[in-house]
TrEMBL record:
<keyword id="KW-0547">Nucleotide-binding</keyword>
<feature type="binding site">
    <location>
        <position position="9"/>
    </location>
    <ligand>
        <name>ATP</name>
    </ligand>
</feature>
<keyword id="KW-0963">Cytoplasm</keyword>
<keyword id="KW-0460">Magnesium</keyword>
<keyword id="KW-0418">Kinase</keyword>
<comment type="function">
    <text>Major role in the synthesis of nucleoside triphosphates other than ATP. The ATP gamma phosphate is transferred to the NDP beta phosphate via a ping-pong mechanism, using a phosphorylated active-site intermediate.</text>
</comment>
<feature type="modified residue" description="Phosphothreonine">
    <location>
        <position position="91"/>
    </location>
</feature>
<comment type="similarity">
    <text>Belongs to the NDK family.</text>
</comment>
<feature type="binding site">
    <location>
        <position position="102"/>
    </location>
    <ligand>
        <name>ATP</name>
    </ligand>
</feature>
<dbReference type="GO" id="GO:0004550">
    <property type="term" value="F:nucleoside diphosphate kinase activity"/>
</dbReference>
<feature type="binding site">
    <location>
        <position position="91"/>
    </location>
    <ligand>
        <name>ATP</name>
    </ligand>
</feature>
<keyword id="KW-0067">ATP-binding</keyword>
<protein>
    <recommendedName>
        <fullName>Nucleoside diphosphate kinase</fullName>
        <ecNumber>2.7.4.6</ecNumber>
    </recommendedName>
</protein>
<keyword id="KW-0597">Phosphoprotein</keyword>
<dbReference type="InterPro" id="IPR023005">
    <property type="entry name" value="Nucleoside_diP_kinase_AS"/>
</dbReference>
<keyword id="KW-0479">Metal-binding</keyword>
<keyword id="KW-0546">Nucleotide metabolism</keyword>
Length: 148
């Protein structure tokens, strides 16, 4: 089954949106297979956002993502990578549709509440970066027979 890496960023944790975000993914029908509240180190931040290292806002991005605890998660389900990106909304909350996390709760691009992997390759990379294999569980939920 497909897996993706989802993270409530420091602004989302501070604004008490962890429960709301978990709730949305649970109700959609996806399965949580790993989760932890953690402080991202400078080194992990630079690795995670490596693709943006030449961007003018890279320093700001690293400072922001290390500015407080994040809630890191791995979610599983059919087409979960693309679905999660749709549930998050566009990168800039001012362009994100209502009904999406960023559209409903965000205002500025620098504090856009949630991260989600953007491809199967980045999902694999980010899951391995944030989680040890023994932190990910494999289990069946009875409700899945009503989803699939
Ligand atoms: P992530 O899920 O966080 O990776 O967002 P994304 O995939 O929708 O966007 P992208 O990977 O292109 O950018 C990564 C993050 O950089 C975004 O989520 C924003 O928080 C931040 N970012 C993008 N553009 C700007 C900008 O112009 N200024 C600032 N401060 N941050 C930006
Ligand atoms: Mg991205």
């Amino acid at each position: 089954v497909e897996k993706t890496f989802i993270m409530v960023k420091p602004d989302g944790v501070q604004r008490n949106l962890v429960g709301e975000i978990v709730n949305r993914f649970e109700k959609k029908g996806f399965t949580l297979v790993g989760a932890k509240l953690m402080q991202i180190t400078d080194e992990l931040a630079k690795e995670h956002y490596g693709e943006h290292k030449e961007r003018p806002f890279f320093g700001e991005l690293v400072d922001f993502i290390t500015s407080g605890p994040v809630f890191a998660m791995v979610w599983e389900g059919e087409n979960v990578i693309t679905s999660a990106r749709e549930m998050m909304g566009k990168t800039n909350p001012s362009e994100a549709a209502l009904g999406t996390v960023r559209g409903d709760y965000g205002v500025t691009v620098g504090k856009n509440i949630i991260h989600g992997s953007d491809s199967p390759e980045s999902a694999e990379r980010e899951i391995n970066l944030f989680f040890h294999s023994n932190e990910l569980l494999s289990y069946n939920k009875q409700v899945n027979t009503w989803i699939y």
